[in-house]
Please model this.
Amino acid sequence: MLSNKNTRILLIVLGALLALYFVTDLTQNGESNYKTQLQAFDTASVNRIELVPPSPSEKIEISKQDGRWMVMENGNSYSADNSAVNRMLIGLNGTRVKSVVASTPDAWEKYRTTDSLGTRIRLMDGEKVLSDILIGKYDYVQPGNQNPSPYNRRQIDIVGHVKLAGDDAVYAIDGTAVLGLGKSAADFSDKLLTRLNAKKINKVELSFADSVSLTLVKANNRWELGGGSADSATVEKYVRQLANLRGYTFSTFTPASNDVFATLTIESEEGSSPVVLTAYLTGTGSYYFVSSQNPTNIFRDKDKKLKDKILVTKSYLEGETQ
Model:
């Protein structure tokens, strides 16, 4: 038989275990109300994205059409950069939550997770919402106990703050997962002008509006300029540049047809259709370029870098400095 002393000890132990059980149960129930990761979804099921940046920016819609992404803004449709869209989907898919930084609406403004301050992103499968998230402010946190050696210092931590639809809590996540998300059609636009195999290009024709034209033809591994000789090293460099061109500044401006300044036609021995680049020069002195490989997107050549690469002279192709 247990003594009174042993009985008291046993009751104390049982009481402590019961208290621990209830505390643990309450804690787990409280924590279960919060997310440990963002909404996970099948990225392949996403075929429409609604992105609403803070005012005064306009709502952007990105949709998958015939296997590729298109970005729509103000009723116009443009080719989107598939890589940029896929990076966004990967960054938002089930990202781990670092912590809960707030649990009530009075903190939303502080973390910029309101509709007027944050960027709302809805990922859709048709009309079905797969994920609805508000991206708020970023904090750049300097790690503590830094090693004084510049070679051993830890990088600054980037912390993003997000809020999920229907959830009052504000979550801290790894900011690199959502850092740099686009807020305009320009951010998501495909900057492609040309993507060709330079070694397969065998003809380049550059025609200016004033009827001046230059024709480069490759025959027997040698380049000829209008039937005459061309500087091989210069032409090879020029052709390599033409094979992989990207626009710099995406533009929603549509130049007039009478602003055409020059056209460049590139042919390849691969037998595909010629690639045509059109250069426009407006009355304000601005150059714009559009390519048949990406016909929906127009690029302003603000610093005339494309002009200098594409619109060359006969003397340059003959080896003289441009």
About this structure: The first strand starts at residue 48 and ends at 52. The radius of gyration is 30 Å. Residues 21-32 have pLDDT under 50 and may be disordered.
